[in-house]
């Protein structure tokens, strides 16, 4: 096996590892509210979400095209140099995903990936290496503006939906309403999972496409290979099934007190926005959209919002792009300084070491499907409180 091919294999493996972390990091976006209200048992929820993520990954490649052709100037770098840029960006995204997962913070996997890629590109090529704005393309139009608008729009839609739901069902039998909306939540959560697969799995497809272009296997105008789509679909589905319980607890129990009508409104608004963005090729943050929807459902009901938790999330959102970018830039610098295959192997070893360290740290206070509905300081899980 040649050095160039070995580097390509490492990059593809790292990309699929990012896709795997994307899966368990973002499971909460679809299933946190259904788990919190008792509409679905935790293990059933993540299994259902995994299957629908797998299916959703095959529905479109519009987002993948944006990632592959709309961030890095492909004509400015090529060959192994581009592979190292892509590799360093992936490492930045993975490490930020794992760090925020460790603290139970639902930050954006999408922005972690983009931040890592942008940071590595800036280190390698300077400011001109990134497509900041080119008409309706570029980082500003495709990433920054949707990131600012998505949570606000999602919160407004969910708030209006929640208010309407409670107004319509006012006076109806409480047990009937609760049971009906729990069934409805299964459908709406499934739609979010399908949308997540359509949007997020494609981001890794785009990265692998970049790597294949760099290696000369493909050109920038080729179609997405089926094996890339299948590999990314399986990786994100496997990660989703793992659970990501720490973030599920934060979104389902830490932000607002969720009841089944709120959950339906939040999931429906999130799914509509994510699917719309996927149709237009916008690599939207499903985490920010889902969080905005959950926040809006709480405001629409007039429920207490834990603003301290929301503040922690907002800080993580603001830091994601720059911090993942710094890690991506540092990884590129190390790989470039050592040089060639040894440089890539050094960074890959650091990635494995830090990932293992964070996993071991998480085992000191594990969150599993057994305690995912237990928020510190609360006496009863939401599902128990609804049936009490």
The percent of residues in helical segments reads: over 70%
Question: Roughly what is the average pLDDT, rounded to an integer?
Answer: 84
Strand content: under 5%
Q: What is the number of beta strands?
A: 0
User: Low-confidence parts, pLDDT < 50 over ≥5 residues?
Assistant: 379-388
Query: What's the gyration radius in Å?
Result: 20 Å
Biggest β-sheet, characterized?
Answer: none
Number of helical segments?
Answer: 14
Organism: Nocardia jiangsuensis
Protein name: Phosphate transporter
Subcellular location: Membrane
Pfam family, one: PHO4
Describe this entry's structure for a reader.
By secondary structure, the protein is mainly α. It has one domain (3-372, 382-386). It has 14 helices and no strands. It has helices at 3-37, 42-56, 62-69, 79-102, 109-125, 139-168, 174-215, 226-242, 245-254, 260-279, 286-301, 307-338, 340-362, 382-387. α1 runs parallel beside α13 (340-362), α3 crosses α7 (174-215) and α7 (174-215) crosses α8. The radius of gyration is 20 Å and the shape is globular. It starts with a helix and ends with a helix. Residues 379-388 have low confidence and may be disordered. The chain crosses the membrane at residues 44-70, 82-104, 110-132, 139-160, 224-243, 314-335, 341-360. It is a multi-pass membrane protein. Keywords: Membrane, Phosphate transport, Transmembrane, Transmembrane helix, Transport. It holds the Pfam family PHO4. This is Phosphate transporter.
